Amino acid sequence: MTKLATFLLLITVHVYGFSQESKLDSLLELSNTNEGRNSTIDQTSIFEAIFTESIATNKTGIRNQFFSKLYDLYYSQLDYFQLSNIVRKQLDCSKMDSSNNEIDIAKLEMKYGYFLNKTGDILNSIEHYNNAMIIGTYTDSSLIDYFYRYIAINQSVNYATIADYDKAIQLQSEALDYFMTRSLNETVKCHNNLGDYYTLSNDYNNAIKHYNISISLRDSTLQSHLVPTPYVGLSKIALNQHDPDRAISLLDEALAFINKSPPSYNTKEVLIELYLTKSLVYKQLNNTERSFLNATQSLEIATKYYNHNKHRRLGYIHNTLGLYQLDNKEFDDAENHFKKALDNLTQNTTDPQIMVAYNGMINCMYYNSKTKNTQVFRDKIIDLVNRANDVYYKLKQMYKNDPSKYFLAEFSDHFLSIGISVCFDSYTETKRKTYLNQGLLFSEYSKASALIDAITKHKTFDPIQEKHNIEINKLTTLKQEQTYLLSESTSSNDSVSTLSYKKNIRTINLQLDVLNKQTSYNVQPEITNIDFKDIQKYLKSNDISLIEYHCDEENLFVFSIRDSSVNCKRISLSNSLERELNNTLQSFTFENRHRYNHKSAKALFNILWPNEAIKHRVLIIPCNKLMNLPFEALTTNSNNYLIKTHSIQYSLSINSLITKGYYSHQNEFNNQALCISPNFKQSKNNHLKNSLTEIESIENVIESRLLLDDEASKTNYLSQSPNFSVIHITTHGEYNEKTETSYIQFSEKKLFASELYNMHLTNPLVVLSACETADGKNQSTEGLLSLSRAFTYAGIPSVISSQWAVEERSTALVFSHFYQGLSQNKSTASALSDAKLSYLNNPLISKEYKTPFYWAGFMHWGIDQSLSLNKKSFSFKTFLSRSPNSLILITLLLILLMLFRYFKR
Predict the structure, then answer these.
(1) pTM
(2) For 621, which of 157, 527, 548, 776 could close a Cys bridge (C-beta 3.0–4.6 Å)?
(3) Res. 601: pLDDT tops 60
């Protein structure tokens, strides 16, 4: 059949009055012909025509018959894009057809989720699996087998793809609990998957345990493709543990088993993965020839298996080959593979592998630029970095959880660092400031993107919408309950209780999915990239200079802006920089509290501080280890602390400040402080001896509500805090390596970071007078994942927090001056800076207690803002209640007065 005949057949079918069945038969015949499959009128057009005609029949049986035929046609070709289109149309028809029950719709939702996963549209796949789970759970318990088989297992694959390994493990564990007494094959599959997920999360002990269980369960009745899978997984662990010989042995064992088994589609998928893994092993052994040979073999099998259709697995393999050739400095060949990877990944994909492909292409061009060294070539790299960043920005807006966003950001951080380096080289050659502007923007794009998403979410929150507000409150409550149940389920030794916890968690997860869908349109706006003019406008309106730091593997870039002037210097990450930084940070430990290393602090100042003049007020955006450094404690060339000449505030990114700047609080605050101080007399944490003095110094300056001792409860904080302008918490805080378990201690309970991340807070200022509230895990693209950041994430625009285990007496003095400054309408950052200076200039404090350990521990993060706080008026009642000896003094004064009057007579 010629292309012209194909076109005429379509026209004839649409114009002339054939019976509906004849039209469908003709169209289906066309779709089955080779000419029809290869004609300029592509398969999608034919499919749409068939769908239109099948709707016109208005007969469910006929329509389903043709859906079935089309499904078989494209499944034989493994054309997952067409299969997902077919199921989507079938799902649409089922929803319109009143005769279909919700169970049929749930099954189609599951099938659609499966094919979306195959095409790489991971986030939509998750949504449709959830739709099926929600429908089935609330309609018919007989679907439970389907849900565990197709959702819990396949949904876990989705979450693993977007690096949410905890969620993947949770779902797969639930599936394992179900299948252990029902299906040996599915039990083996669950153990294999759990092994994979634990491997990805670097928990090799648990991974090996599940792989070994899978091997011990193998049986002649098992499907052949399941048996070699754990050997491939174990070989990856051996590879990660630098034992390539064991890895090869395990892969050979898996291959021998496959060769004895009858061929199948699933077996070929294992073969593809096996040869790809073998390629990586030989790469570690520096056997480049065999490495490339195995990767090529994997590509050949995959290309035939997928019938030359686009598939994300092909994208993975091209990425692997590209990375192989990149290591071998075969840049042109590597770039070609990365382009092919993009070609297989870009159609409807939300798979993070697309960032690997962009990273690879940018790397190839960057290394080529070192030999070609032309500005035209560098401009192409800058353009590609911008394009890659646009794709990253779209992807990370779709990813709802932070682990996935961090995972994506790791990719972007690398290509943005290349962009910064190329911009600096371009500026050095051309002296055009626009390159520095672009370099600064690249640096900004790499910072705190997950935090900025959260800030923007709170910016658009509108409590006036009563229904929406109720939904948000439900969402917060459910997430808090989820955190509690997860904690209890992991610590419980009672199997019955654990099972009950898991069931409750599953119910909450379903409710969360529904609420997330209901609130996402109002809470998650589209976020636009920051513009350089926005930065200039912010700095000018606040009369402040900006210093932003960015590290790559070799260099530290220091960007500085005063007014409209942009400058940058590149510093090699030498051993001397590392040494001086470590020496200075050591000065802030308790052991060295009276011995400050001025020599290292001065050397560090000369390395890190810009060469040009900087305004008095400075905004610093640090990176990596510089997050732990209070810059105001650096020693200048005039042998003074930097705080003597500059008022310094900090932020994780300037974009977060600009976003916050447009944010107006909806609540009306009472211009007072809520001061919270638990009593730990019966606890090992009873070391906050001067906390009451600190609280009283605040109450003496501004109107305050005190929550002391037992009243300083988590419940009281959550219920009373929303109306206060300032929240001041003086208590015990602790940072844990597992960030979400870091906490602030109240009188009866702990407030965990995981809870804060799920809250919506609006107070203008939170002061965390507790140990280590600014310390945390350093996430390269997000900064320190600290308790301080958790409050910012929850919506607080200004946070003052401690960088180390602060000394209580000096803290009380600093905060007394700080709140006096606030009462005089000083801005938050200026008030803190002046309070530190007042401490340093106090003649009553001896020199040994004026080292930075005592005054530099608190850092101001976020917006510098003025707060109209109510000054405290004198209260005789308060004077009596707060001064233990006041009654005695007053009695003595009265006696003296009476004696004076008596003798005067």
Answers:
(1) 0.71
(2) 548
(3) yes
